[in-house]
């Protein structure tokens, strides 16, 4: 704990120096932790990339994510998520399954998710499934070239991700979450998802906080392989709203690198990235990225992989879920 507090103090000093440096119109060098170093290989020019660790008390826990979030996220790939819970998390009970058409254009493609409650852990759960099938993938990729949707007064979100969440929210998820919150006051809300589901989880967690249904400190957001979901303003607001928000990335997973971070659209990841530059087996190391989105952590990986996108913590999560999470 003392080591973590010291690291947090040092990073806070660096972050303050970084913010002052950027406000003076210069760049901050992450590798040297100094202002305006010439030819810096990791120059920080955006305030959201100033180095910071998560707030004390909201730290990342590999054991929890490996043994619990892996199950809740994978379960969304089974039409009956309770089968996974019966074998892995018996105190978790599915409350409602939501499956809706989430294509505003073209042929129907389904978005799928569920709500659940755990009276032992005192948790309400909201989980979203990732992309399933070439038709949905094509619809999703095509949406990158369409306009973004305003997120209240806090930036913009990619249209497909925003619409997909709203179709599910209005298709039964909202009513059930409100009912669960009434029945289980004081419970923490977990919001989880993989791939497309990770983007919708980001939108969903943000929506319930922005609309006042939950306080940000009572929400725990965990995503696997999340694509860029909104713009810089959205990412900036997200950091102020959520003390506990983690984007887990496996090694060369290609999806967190799309859509590309370029041009006037300025797609930008919110904090905090956790990068496993390995097979994610028990005991293997991980990096909690001090920056939000730039040439840091997983973005330093030149080679990208499609197979790494569905392989997390030693499981091919779609196949594992469809088999009932044995």
Automatic annotation (TrEMBL):
Keyword Hydrolase: no
Annotated coiled-coil segments of the chain: none
GO biological process, one term: lipid metabolic process
Keyword Aminoacyl-tRNA synthetase listed: no
Signal peptide extent: 1-15
Source organism superkingdom: Eukaryota
Keywords: Signal
Every Fungal lipase-type domain range: 126-261
Matches recorded under InterPro entries: AB_hydrolase_fold, Fungal_lipase-type
UniProt-listed Gene3D superfamilies: alpha/beta hydrolase
Record-linked PANTHER family: FUNGAL LIPASE-LIKE DOMAIN-CONTAINING PROTEIN, PROTEIN CBG11750-RELATED
Protein name: Fungal lipase-type domain-containing protein
Organism: Caenorhabditis auriculariae
